[in-house]
Amino acid sequence: MKKVLIVEDSDMVIKVLRHLMAQYPHYQALFAANMAQAQEIVEQHPQDIFAALVDLNLPDAPDGEIVDYALSQKIPTIVLTGSYDEKKREHLFAKGIVDYVTKEGRYAYNKAVDLIHRLEKNEQIKVLVVDDSDMSRKHVSNLFRRHLFQVVEAKDGVDAIKVLLDNQDVRLLITDYNMPRMDGFELVKNLRYKYDKTDLIMIGVSGESTEALSAKFIKHGANDFLRKPFHPEEFYCRIIHNLEYLELVEQITSAAQRDHLTGLYHRHHFFNAAREVYRNAQEKSMPLALAVINVDHFRDFNEQYGHESGDLALKHVAQCLNNMLERFLICRADADDFFVLLPGLDNEKAVSLISRVRQLLSSEECVINGESKRLYFSAGVSNHMQDGVDPQIKSATHLLRLGKEAGGNMVLGDEDAND
User: Measuring CA to CA, which residue among 171, 172, 174, 190 is closest to residue 182?
Assistant: First the structure.
């Protein structure tokens, strides 16, 4: 659980922030009404405060001393202030705050709490800063680190390509224009052949005054462009805007690939993804198991308890399967059928794994409408790859049928096909 220090002397503001922080139960909000209380909290939780949200004017710290203290403790700090002042804004960003928010209604407090959540998401995002100037590169890298991004660096376009090959989880690249060997424009142009705009965000940067340069960058693949010198506030607004766009696309894409009831992948996505897994297994001569799972007596369950209870049961089964088999490709194929693709497992190991999953599921109680139920499934597991995924599903389905005919609640593999 991440601890967030909130320093605010207004009871009304504290009430609003308590309500907003409750939307994120994995945060533990630690409230202080003045600087002295804030210092006590930090001393009680040394090096354990994830971020701080602080009022700029406190009874015992009227001139923003709390900001200096929080930053001295290396705590990412978001400032709450009752008034906007240009000089104060410049001064605060120069000190190294994350951002500042003026107290202008509920939206402002929502924004402040969202910034904390943004910092948490940034911890999982790797960015690449490309610039031949050591000073400029370090400055931009430090701006990213202030917002808790993972940062890697490159001195020019050629170096950047090498860094990308070694860091394929880079999600955002920001590059200067004028560089030796390969400039920023050529870097963006070359990389866009490999990466879509939703795979890698690329932002061009330049101190040149020509208006055509920004259009040139964006026309040839950059997501955005920044002109030097830029203010940290503008920098962060552009970065967050592009990341939120990327995350929205990912959410839409994920929703389109998921079954609306269980949250697992749906059948169409499974077949699309399975073709690539199948190809990879063939090229590497790697075993590939496929399991077809069916909930036992589900039709009877629906008739006895109703379809709403049946949906709850399917959600329970899906959650259990996902928890136990999350490293594999799994989908809800149809009604109470589930497919699981298990690359790297021979038939014996795959049958053993699915059997353990069956045992664990049957041992868990599923509470539906206040009543505890136990759910069971049967499965067929085949490693007969044959000519593709469809024939392998057919083989696994045949084994499933044999298990059902034998009474259910069992997992059969290829060796059981002729029994």
Answer: 190
Instruction: Quote the CA–CA distance of 298 and 374 in Å, as a whole number.
Output: 12
Q: Give the helix/strand (H/E) hosting 402.
A: helix 389-405
Identify the band that residue 419 occupies on the pLDDT scale cut at 50, 70 and 90: low
Distant-in-sequence, close-in-space partners of 413: CB < 8 Å, separation ≥ 6? 347, 348, 350, 351, 380, 381, 382, 383, 399
Single pTM value for the model: 0.75
Backbone CA torsion sign across 274, 277, 281, 282: positive
The 10s digit of each residue's pLDDT in 312-347 is 989 999 999 999 998 999 999 988 999 999 999 999
Tokens representing residue 234 in the block: 């503008």
Domain that holds residue 32: 2-120
Query: Can you give the CATH number for the domain in which 185 is found?
Result: 3.40.50.2300
Q: Residue 396 corresponds to which tokens in the numbers above?
A: 């696994």
Model confidence band, residue 24 (pLDDT cutoffs 50, 70, 90): confident
Last residue of a domain, one of 59, 90, 120: 120
DSSP per residue, 194-232: T--TTT-EEEEEE----THHHHHHHHTT-SEEEESS--H
User: Left (φ > 0), alpha (ψ -120 to 50) or beta: where does 83 sit?
Assistant: beta
Cα–Cα distances in angstroms (integers) from residue 45 to residues 24, 74, 149, in the given order = 20, 13, 23
Residues 316 and 412 occupy one common structural domain:
yes
**What single-letter DSSP state applies at residue 8?**
-
